[in-house]
Amino acid sequence: MKPDIKTAKECLENWGFSEYSKAYIMTNEVLRLSVKNIPTKSDILTVAGSGDHPLFCLLREPKSVDTFDVSYNAKVIMDIKTSAIPKLPFAGYRNLLNGLYEEYDIKDIYELPEIIKTLPAEEQEYIEQINGKGFIRSDMTLFFSPYLFMQKKEYEQIRKRLHGPFNFIWTDITSLHAKLNKTYDFMHLSNIFDYMGIQKIIYVLSSLVPYVNNGGKIYFEYGMNSEPKPKNFHNFCSDVSNKYNQELKFRVKYDGNRKKCILQRTR
Ligand SMILES: C[S@@+](CC[C@H](N)C(=O)[O-])C[C@H]1O[C@@H](n2cnc3c(N)ncnc32)[C@H](O)[C@@H]1O
């Protein structure tokens, strides 16, 4: 899983998701709400994103949390966070994220050398070479918004339950199934489907359903104006039920300008 720094530098010049696309420093989703759909003691698979997806999953006292992402930079920000959290009190963690957000030369961040020391050598080299260019600096007004950012109490719970880095699968979601070697109770796919047509979405869901435990769920969100309609997912559920010895139920909640969806395997 060694990153190629030359390819990364080229990819970072381009838009769109790729194996080195920029990663968010902090989530722009209200994760404390989406993780409420996860039963405790679950085996969870989640997109890595900014690392906040797997970290918020720890609030549900999971059995295990594995992560995947198309971008290596998602692994980098996630590993920085999982290395920092055991070392830093809440205020120090906020300072670190603020530094990552504000400093394009992240080597200037006081806490960073100590934090990256525990990462694999090739990841340390990657951070030194790519510096702060691997991160998206989105709307500062959202940054540290109390809706999005971890509260102190949540941070303490997460800190207690974090036992090292998360397992990371570096892959596009269309090939994810081929890299899985266990089944899960919950898959958090976030808003990846915003960027796909319905045929591809159905392909991805079909490939992942065999890795969902009986009673388990796949969670995803997409925009009101995106191509898929709830009837596409209802049709998908009846197709799966007819073809395989599995039954799926689909639920959607309309929330602001988002559709929040759960596919549940009921047999
Ligand atoms: C959909 S993005 C949006 C950011 C997100 N709202 C958050 O709060 O972090 C979340 C993550 O999905 C990853 N991603 C996008 N398309 C992907 C794909 N086809 N396969 C795997 N990961 C993908 C991105 O690299 C990013 O880290």
Describe, in plain words, how this protein is organized in 3D.
The structure is a single chain. Strands 5-3-2-6-7-9-8 form a 7-stranded mixed beta sheet, sandwiched between helices. It starts with a helix and ends with a strand. It is α/β, with parallel strands linked by helices and 267 residues long. The protein has a domain at 5-190. The model has no long low-confidence stretch (mean pLDDT 93). The longest helix has 16 residues, at 72-87. The chain has 10 helices and 9 strands. The chain is 36% helix and 19% strand. The site of S-adenosylmethionine has 20 residues, from strand 1.
Quickly count the helices: 10
Percent of residues in helices: 25-40%
Shape: globular
Bound molecules: S-adenosylmethionine
| Average of per-residue pLDDT values | 93
Spatial ordering of strands, largest sheet = 5-3-2-6-7-9-8
The structure class reads: alpha/beta
Distance between the termini: 36 Å
What's the number of extended β-strand segments? Answer: 9
| Quaternary status | single chain
How many strands, which pairing sense, and closed or not: the largest β-sheet? 7 strands, mixed
Alpha-carbon Rg, integer: 18 Å
Query: Uncertain spans, ≥5 residues at pLDDT below 50?
Result: none
Return the string of H and E elements: HEHEHEHHHHEHEEHEHEE
Beta percentage is 15-25%
